[in-house]
Amino acid sequence: MPGKNLSREEAQQRADILSVDSYRVHLDVTSAVDPAAATFRSTTTITFRSSAPGTATFVDLLAPAVRSATLNGRALDPGTAFDGARITLDTLAEQNVLVVEADCAYSRTGEGLHRFVDPADGETYLYTHYEPADARRVFATFEQPDLKAPFSFTVTAPAAWDVYHNAAHEEITDQGAARVWRFAPTEPISTYLTAVVAGPYHVERDHYRRRLADGSTLEIPLAATCRRSLAPYFDADEIFTVTKQGLDFFHEEFDFPYPFGKYDQCFVPEYNIGAMENPGCVTFREDFVFRSKVTEAAYEGRANVILHEMAHMWFGDLVTMKWWDDLWLKESFADFMGSFSQIEATRYRSAWITFANKRKAWAYRQDQFPTTHPITADIRDLEDAKLNFDGITYAKGASVLKQLVAYVGRDAFFAGVRQYFKRHAYGNTVLGDLLDVLEQTSGRDLTAWSGAWLQTAGVNSLTPQLTCDAEGRITEFAVVQDGATPRPHRIAIGLYDRDAVGALVRTHRIELDVHGTRTVVPELAGLPRPALVLLNDDDLTYCKIRFDDRSLETLRDGLGEITDGLARALAWSAVWNLTRDGLMPTRDYLALVLRFAGQESGIGVLQSLHQQAKLALDVYADPAWRPEGAQLLAEGALRELRAAAPGSDHQLAWARFLAQTAHEEEQFRLLRGLLAGTARIDGLEVDQDLRWLLWLALAAAGKAGAEELNAELAADNTASGKQHLTECLAALPTAGAKAAAWSAVIDSDELPNALVEAQISGFNQPGRRDLTVGYTERYFALLEEIWSQRSIEIAMRIVGGFFPRYQTDERTLAAADAWLTGHPSAAPALRRLVLECHDDLARALRAQACDRG
Ligand SMILES: [Zn+2]
């Protein structure tokens, strides 16, 4: 569609001549409860000024139909002015009023105004999601972050519904079967941050109160909502506890009162991402409402997301990046603040371990793709922007901020942050605005730091280099830095030895700056050579850690005996990177997991190990050895499941891992017995989500049929049950099941996002590669068509999800190569996705070669 993409230049030109005074938006969603109604009525009035009267510009709107458009009282002909994505505003005046009345579409893809019908009770639920640029699917808008304005929303909805929005409602008027909700004007915010959540949502309320420095009292009404059928599982108390702890923390540190009045947190169905920081109306994926037992890691993860979004109220909502190049300005900060505040203000004290273990793994992976980019990115258009919500913008950016705090100190960092809010409140910023305040408060020149860390892509490796004398004392200790561009790092070095009971404990720690390719550390000369050298101990910087030979030997014999949880997580992360880089045979990595995962106390670390071990077996192991490895993993899972404390998180994690690795008849019999209630593991509750996981294992192995899977849905006729059933049916190892899943996604665009995901996940199972190998050619042939015809959210899932990731052979790599060579002018965002999948595959082949020895 012409004009669907928006370039940085177009946005810049528009911002140069426009300033927006206000939006008035009226949405009539009374039609939502009628499944046959595809659209809702949207009326927008924009009051704006132009510094270039007489010139033309455009307003964005992705809608099936424009009923009328008037500019300064003059009718514009939709037939010529509207192309499906933009309305041309031909002649601007100095003061302008634009009124657009349109029919906008209910969304099935989670982009725009999403409509969902709950299978449990037939109720209809709506919510909006826009970032980066989907407000234009709901109302006419100048869709770019730097044209901020106050928004006044009115929503006409079925009478039995509640409506949530960024601002509080001022008035509700009954109109027969409908009610009209008129909301107060918002503060000046960006278009992508506006939100509407409407439906018969279940709500719980609480209140936050705080004395401010000026003696006044800040009152923030709190609400938390979910679908009615999830209400029995909704632990709003825990959500409010974390919310209040976060509000306390951010008020202490940011010294800028929460600017958006109330604070609603809405858990919504079929949500594409984790959460979205709409001011005063945060939306979350509803998987965070736990209807079955989850581990403490899941509660920690949810608290992290709550705090991440809350940090955005200041970083992102109050102060917003000018354009998507500086997306990191908000995402890196929110990601960093999520973990930082979690440790300082909540009961989740191991957030830095999780950060080292999960977030950094995401960053390291992304940063080694050929498509990696500096943290401050070059975002040419909206498709670029969409793909930039990635491991660099979030996790690497947050890692670099952690390094910055180590570099300038906590006090200077927060002093800078406080100035930044005061100086730029309700405005838009670029990188330089942040560096300005940080340089002021730290007294340091950050030009070199910013150049190395924010404006240069890639990850460095740090390796210890030791020479020792005949008595085993260190004569020289150096840190060697690899990578295209060496960086300045603030790091700690830990030396570890066995204590009296054989545990590996830290005996020395020094902190220093590392520059260039080789840094000699004279302080360590003369010490006895330790059993283990851990560079980047305490995880201050962002790098891949390597080991000297002796340290690696120590890890093979005793990784699990490192007593410190963070040090152990760093060691696990390092051996994972060695495996991914083809420097440690996959079977050696799996041997470490089999030997030491059972004693891993950190539940989040353990669950990551499970994920990584499964991935290692499926794609990094030598295919000839894979059956043996599979057997070892399944036996290990069963052994640890039986050994785990009854009712513990560890027991649940091992049960799930057994379901994912089950390999032999006896193991499948156990899974079936657990489902039937004829087998028991003491303390293990086989609740609904675990049941579906067991069914998936049986289905993928061809040990369960469609009939009994459908029977399980009858017992769990919910949204979640429907997604699980869809995945199980697509996982059945028959040509017919694969064809049906493929066709459901490719031949029709009727499926909602959640079921697209379930179909793809079930289709692409590692167990029966023979059943999907025939789709490789079709996949590459369809890519461009999919990209041009589907919404970007769905297209991204199809391109990433149907890539033949388990066909780890030279033939598939050649097919990916051929597509890339043959399509140099395909959409850059599409090429980026394929390049990344291609790179994953090439990496898998290198790891397999290493594993073959
Ligand atoms: Zn965020």
Automatic annotation (TrEMBL):
Recorded catalytic activity of this chain's protein: Release of an N-terminal amino acid, Xaa-|-Yaa- from a peptide, amide or arylamide. Xaa is preferably Ala, but may be most amino acids including Pro (slow action). When a terminal hydrophobic residue is followed by a prolyl residue, the two may be released as an intact Xaa-Pro dipeptide
Positions of the Peptidase M1 membrane alanine aminopeptidase domain: 242-449
Cofactor: Zn(2+)
Domain ERAP1-like C-terminal: 532-842
Residues covered by the Aminopeptidase N-like N-terminal domain: 111-193
Enzyme's top EC category: hydrolase
Name of a matching Pfam family: Peptidase_M1_N
Keyword check for Protease: yes
One Gene Ontology MF term: aminopeptidase activity
Keywords assigned: Aminopeptidase, Hydrolase, Metal-binding, Metalloprotease, Protease, Zinc
EC number: 3.4.11.2
Family: Belongs to the peptidase M1 family.
PANTHER family xrefs: PROTEASE M1 ZINC METALLOPROTEASE, PUROMYCIN-SENSITIVE AMINOPEPTIDASE-RELATED
Name of the protein in question: Aminopeptidase N
Organism: Kitasatospora cystarginea
